[in-house]
Amino acid sequence: MRIARFSLDGNVAFGVVEGDAETEGGPVLDIIKGHPFAEFERSGQKLPLKQVRLLPPVLPNKVVGVGRNYAEHARELGNEVPDVPVVFFKPSTAVCGPHDPVTYPSFSSEVHYEAELAVVIGRLCKDVPRERVKDVILGYTCGNDVTARDIQRSESQWARAKGFDTSCPLGPWVETELDPSDLGVMCTVNGEQRQLGRTSEMVRSVEDLVVHITGAMTLLPGDVILTGTPAGVGPLAVGDEVAVTIEGIGTLTNKVVKRD
Predict the structure, then answer these.
(1) Is the dihedral of CA 180, 181, 183, 189 positive or negative?
(2) What is the DSSP letter of 159?
(3) What's the pLDDT score for residue 154?
(4) Is the dihedral of CA 204, 205, 206, 209 positive or negative?
(5) What is the sign of the dihedral through the CA atoms of 83, 149, 249 and 177?
(6) For residues 118 and 227, is the Cβ–Cβ distance under 8 A?
(7) Which domains are assigned to the chain?
(8) CA within 13 Å, CB half, 115
(9) Which residues have a Cβ under 8 Å from the Cβ of 69 and sit 6 or more positions away?
(10) What pLDDT shows up at residue 24?
(11) Fewer CB atoms < 10 Å away: N or C end of the chain?
(12) What Gene Ontology terms describe what this protein does at the molecular function level (predicted)?
């Protein structure tokens, strides 16, 4: 099931996405009663997807990022695979949605894309045992861990490098029925492929990460875990269109703009 969060005439709601681009009339949204973090009913009121504005599929309290979780990516930046996961945060203010602009920060001259599988937490959880991980996950979406690489290199903490406004595009929706163990992850810039990997190449699996992170902190419904990026990261420029595609989910597209 694909669950989207959207806006129409100033009203925000969730809906189940039905159909695809090949469906006559295109995909539609069946508006749901309530929110997806509890049992819900479909209203039966349907809207063409093209008539609404897709928003970030969730508004996380926190985004927990995981660094160097693909060995090839660690090596391309001159790093070793860490003995334990490298965990960092992106604030909620970093989150933006499909087709929202990514604003190039004024304090950086080297901003990179990082295509990632994003895990969306479905319920409050702490100290999750491995056998219960699936129970706390609502689903998965596409993420782009946009990073000011020059700032990351120059500062020991990654807060500015990875936490600036619009540095965390998420979308286009949450796919709730998906096996995350071996999915294709691709990034294109202006239609040219830059990254291509599979989640089976992750050093630590989704289960590993949820167990590790919840051993330290409570995750809330709507929180997001970014699971790391494959090799092939590189720079973005103002005017670029960057797209993250994950097998079984869809494509998240954003354009890079200059800060006013």
Answers:
(1) positive
(2) H
(3) 97
(4) negative
(5) positive
(6) yes
(7) 2-53 (2.30.30.370), 63-258 (3.90.850.10)
(8) 30
(9) 85, 202, 203, 204, 209, 227, 228, 229
(10) 81
(11) C
(12) acetylpyruvate hydrolase activity; isomerase activity; metal ion binding
